[in-house]
Amino acid sequence: MAERSLMLVLHDVAPETWPDYRPFVEAVDALGQIPISWLVVPDFHRRNRLEDHADFRRLLDGRLARGDELILHGCYHADEAPSPRTPRDWFMRRVFTHEGEFYPLSREESARRLRRGIALFERNQWPLHGFVSPAWLLGPGAREALAATGLTYTSDPGHFYLLPDYQAIDAPGLVWSARSAWRRGMSRLLSERMLQRYQRSPVLRLGLHPVDMRHEFSRQYWLDLLTRLLADGREPVTKIDWLDRHVLASSAAA
């Protein structure tokens, strides 16, 4: 069977969400050397400045030493722009999510926030290759600003996009809506259907959120699924390692 990879991705990583994730990460570490991709928010909802939490920064240093990847995930992870004016924007910013930070921003404001996040990584000597926008939403201004950063990639639930041209690479992902019991039940059914559909996909991403960790049903599902996929022969990798191996190396050779 052709090589198949697996990515374990933790969203919304911040000091206040670490207590949610900690038992799960400890359980994953107990399974062996499984690299994790951490989507790090510089100042989660303007109340979690990473620069104020030296212990948490040291924890992330340790994760890098284990072979994990740190990815820039917005700046504040909150949509603070003026109220939406069109039905589409109202749906995207008030129904789909309230956290689509980079959806309504201008190019200039997007660039400013991206520079702040990149500078944070530089000060901490954290390698940075990717940016994932909160709720995977990028408005036109944010797309232009991101393309000019020199970063390697961004992603949404179904694809990687190589920067600066946004070349799409298929990379299906599973993600839950876990805020209520019926949503968790539906998410499990949808995940199992997607697993069947993408059984032979070269890569499969598991996108976890802090709210998933607050419910035994969803937390145990992710741990059990990870174990199943490893037993099925999928190789755990970070995002940039997979891109380096399967996409960027071949592009450089061409």
TrEMBL record:
<protein>
    <submittedName>
        <fullName>DUF2334 domain-containing protein</fullName>
    </submittedName>
</protein>
<dbReference type="GO" id="GO:0005975">
    <property type="term" value="P:carbohydrate metabolic process"/>
</dbReference>
<dbReference type="InterPro" id="IPR018763">
    <property type="entry name" value="DUF2334"/>
</dbReference>
<dbReference type="InterPro" id="IPR011330">
    <property type="entry name" value="Glyco_hydro/deAcase_b/a-brl"/>
</dbReference>
<dbReference type="Pfam" id="PF10096">
    <property type="entry name" value="DUF2334"/>
</dbReference>
